[in-house]
Amino acid sequence: NYAFMDAISSYEDLVDNGLSDEEIYKKLGDANYMNAKYEEASKWYEKLVALENTTLDPDYYYRYAQTLKSLGSYEESDLWMQKFQDTAPQDLRLKRFEENKNYLETIKANSGRYTIKNLALNSSKSDFSPSFYGQESLVFSTARDSGKVSKNIHKWNKEAFLNLYTTKIDEDGSVGEITKFSKNLNTKTHESSSVFTKDRNTIYFTRNNSTNGSFSRDDQGVSRLKIYRAKLIDGKWENIEELPFNSDDYSVAHPSLSDDEKTLYFSS
Fold first, then answer.
1. Averaged pLDDT, groups of 10, the chain, 268 residues long
2. pLDDT of residue 99
3. DSSP at 72
4. pTM score > 0.90 for this model?
5. What pLDDT is stored for residue 211 in this prediction?
6. Among candidates 203, 217, 201, 164, which has minimal Cα distance to 186?
C-alpha cells in the first residue's frame, strides 16, 4: 500500500524481537530509501549484502551504492557500482555512470561561481519547485501543512500532501507572508510544479491522477502524475482540466512554458 513509514516501524519491531533475514533487510532498506532516509537505508543494505548464500537482484547493489554516495563514501560507492556492473552489464544507469565517473572533479570545477543562500520561506518540510506569478509573487510546492486530519497525511512518508503556496519576494530574497495559493487548486492529492502565462490568467501544474480530488490508481496501485490547466475567472481559479496527452499508464509532469508561450515543455 506504499505505507513505507508504517512498514519501517513493523519491520524494526521484528528486528528488535531477534528476527533477521534477507526479506526484512530488503524491506527496511527499500522503505527508508523511498523516503530519502539514506543513512538508515545504507545500514540495512549493508546487512543485506553481507549475507552469505543469497543471490540479490542487481538493484540492491545500485541502491546501496547510491546511499553510500549520499553519505560521502564515494570510493566505497564506486566499488558497489562496479558490483552492479558485474551483475547487470546492460543496465542504462551504468552508461551514465561510465560517462561521468569523475563527477566529483566536475562539481568542484563548477563550484564557487554563484552565491547560494536559503530563503526565509523554507520550513522543516519539503519546499521546492518555485515559479514566478508576475514580477513580485513566488509560488512554490510545500509539505508544510499541519496534516492534523488523518486524510491529509500521505502514508508514504507520514507527512502532509504537497500543496501550492505563495509569498511576495524582493530582489534581495526577503519574503512576505506565506499563504496557500488557491483553495480551488489544492486537493487531497499532491499539487506541485506550477507555471503561469504572462497575463497571469492561466496556470499549468502537476497533480496526481485523481477523481473528485482523491487518488486514482492503475492496476499496479500506482497513482501517476498528470499536468492540469486552470483559468483565472473573477479572482478564482476555475475550469480545472487535465491536458489531453496525459495518461493513466505513465506520468506527465513539471510543465514549463517557452518565452512566447507557444510551446509547453514537460517531463514524462
1. 84 87 92 92 94 90 94 92 88 82 83 87 89 91 67 61 90 87 83 94 90 65 86 94 92 95 96
2. 81
3. T
4. no
5. 67
6. 164
Q: How far apart, in Å, are the Cα atoms of 245 and each of 185, 217, 227, 250, 264?
A: 20, 18, 9, 11, 12
Q: Which of 135, 215, 210, 208 is nearest to 168 (CA)?
A: 135
DSSP code string of 131-148: EEETTTEEEEEE--S---
Which residue reads 540495512 in cell numbers? 44
Which residue shows C-alpha cell 542504462?
A: 92
CA–CA separation, 166 vs 205, rounded Å? 14
Kindly provide the residue ranges of all beta strands, DSSP E only, lying in 69-147, ordered along the sequence: 127-133, 137-142
Q: How far apart are CA 126 and CA 106, in angstroms?
A: 27
Would you say how long the chain is, in residues? 268
CB–CB of 163/186 below 8 Å?
Answer: yes
